[in-house]
Please model this.
Amino acid sequence: MKEIKVGLLGLGTVGAGVAKVLASHREELEEKAGASVVLQAIADKDTTSPRKGLKVSELPMSADVSSVLDDPSVDIVVELFGGIEPARSFIMRALANGKHIVTANKALLATHGEELYSEARRCGRMLAFEAAVAGGIPLIRSVKEGLVANRITTLYGIVNGTSNYILSKMTDEGQEFSRVLAEAQAKGYAEADPTYDVEGIDSAHKLQILATLAFRTSVRLEDIYVEGITKITPEDIGLAREMGFRIKLLAIAKATDSSLELRVHPTMIPESSPMSAVSGVFNAVFLSGDVVNDLMFYGRGAGQMPTASSVCADIVEIARRIAAGQAAVPQDLPVLGRKLLALKPMEEISSAYYLYVSALDQPSVLAQVTGILGRHEISIASLIQKVRQRAKAVPVVMMTHEAQEGAMQKALREIDDLRVIVAPTRMIRVEAS
Amino acid sequence: MKEIKVGLLGLGTVGAGVAKVLASHREELEEKAGASVVLQAIADKDTTSPRKGLKVSELPMSADVSSVLDDPSVDIVVELFGGIEPARSFIMRALANGKHIVTANKALLATHGEELYSEARRCGRMLAFEAAVAGGIPLIRSVKEGLVANRITTLYGIVNGTSNYILSKMTDEGQEFSRVLAEAQAKGYAEADPTYDVEGIDSAHKLQILATLAFRTSVRLEDIYVEGITKITPEDIGLAREMGFRIKLLAIAKATDSSLELRVHPTMIPESSPMSAVSGVFNAVFLSGDVVNDLMFYGRGAGQMPTASSVCADIVEIARRIAAGQAAVPQDLPVLGRKLLALKPMEEISSAYYLYVSALDQPSVLAQVTGILGRHEISIASLIQKVRQRAKAVPVVMMTHEAQEGAMQKALREIDDLRVIVAPTRMIRVEAS
Model:
């Protein structure tokens, strides 16, 4: 039976997971690949510390990446270092050396994806990245192959487990963001530097990768509007709940024939939607295609084993192809469609909105605020004016119908300029359908 | 560019959908296949009636299946007649003639799958059936490829849209089953003969196909316990809701190292689970793998276009392989694992249970009923004894902890033998996790 040799760059959490699965599921992987999948080399600065579940001394460790990148017998390089450099250079070198690539590196693909896909195509090699978006969920494969007969029109999802865990905790326990973040860090659900997760940057990376694939167009990371969850309050969450909504950090992409909108921000969704039940560290991606209609994928978006599951699926697919003598083909990689889509600027997107206005308890406040909204063609679907608590401002909570973002931003500026407004108006976008 | 020729058996609802998509998405399909996908021949008894969205007179119609099965230029035969014969014979003939197969025929695969997979393997041809389970959802592909690194331990799902539609309507409107069925038939959501859908048979077919693939073992349709939704009452649904549950018709499979249980029956699931939000004609399949942990797929399980989406995805995948000179490989088809799993008889499965006991309003009824349960080692998690409505029996509603099915069946027989019981005890299984 043919032997397909794998080299791992990195024996961190995911690398260790991959090494474990390659050993524990060796027979099944061999059957499914029609070839023996051999871990030939592992490059990691740390060649000696124990990794749970592995006997490091029995692994083909080296501190030198050449053992992976330049060993002619290595067929597949699995890049699990993360980050931009030197991961990018290693992948380019591996491709130049005739190796296929499997990676989980969302930050790299989101910023240098096009360059890497082109190089892989030029070298006639496969570059697989199932693990880069939504962990264990076979999402990339589904979009690439299962939905080939579709023009994807919409996709949105919860693609960052840390921020979803935090929002779920805030929802269940009514705690403030900063307190829940601290607890999450203590439990290992959030990093010491949680910026990428709570500011929506990680979600934007994943959206870039998904949108490139699904809409077959060029997507620049900097074109994605990004807003994190740090300003969400327990009060917003409670009001959302009263009105039958949940707050999630959503990555959203909507396409027309000629344009594409891309954004990441906290979003209220109806509690009746399957996505509202996605809690904790779980991820979910909703897609709509012009033939298949609505689909949703749900599962663990991160974690050692779910991520290793996807990395190994990619390894097996490539091994199967190599063993069967099947060359890489251009369609293996994200292709650009005939017509590229123009980015729809954020001001032009439509959304429904939740507004929390803090006003002095004076006559005509409501008239002034609703007057501004009306002048910007923003119509109000529902309004709650809460009883004033002692000397505090009067909270006026509104849900609007669909309106244009640009109009909303202008209206918010005018509202916040009013003398009767005592704190910046809070706004959260709403996806009602 | 290479031309890959497709022959359709059947221009019914799904066939027409496929013909439409092959025309309307021709360019994208060509790009993704790396080959031109040509509709070469369509065989259907009815060569003339209009089909919405198609110009039948411009299609390569014939009433003779030879035009598809025996035309040497046809590469892929798409079987959409349905039913067992002559579909089975046609597929065997097509394989013998060197053609690859795409089918949506769940009844055929559930009863003759092993024979067809073997023949396809023997002929070195691909046999794809994404459309046979869960319509547009790329489920088969996900299990076959995306989850190769997993031993699947559990799968369960809502895989029949008609019965889910009926249960959703009963839930939303409080109506009786027979009335909702009649309305569903009037709207085209249920067939004139709805037996396969409401009795769980269609769900059992899909479970057979999924389980064969996911657990890599031999599964006989007759080994699947099947119970439909015809006895579910609005009262059961209302009580479930009170206790925080929804009732769904679930297809369930659970594996250990050596055994496999397979069943289709109405099941109460917690309203907090993503699956409880799956309503109307939507399907959802939950899977748990030993590496990836929990996953769920959701989408339209039936309907012209969702089904056509999956058929076309299979066509493109096969076309891509043919065009790239890639042979069919054994792993393309469900393989039997090294160790086949023994069927766990229904009496040995464990479940939690909902019981609705109708008793006379007499002393010691509760003691007698709970005594029987206790003797069979069935412990009660919660109990509601409702106020007796005039001269009716007293409803005693119980939720049990996990118990063995055999013990429950014995207990039910004993309970129903009691003089104080006035109607057969209703029982619905509960999946709480």
Remarks:
- The longest strand of chain A covers residues 259-270.
- Chain A has a mean pLDDT of 94.
- Chain A touches chain B through 63 residues (CB under 8 Å).
- DSSP finds 14 helices and 18 strands in chain A.
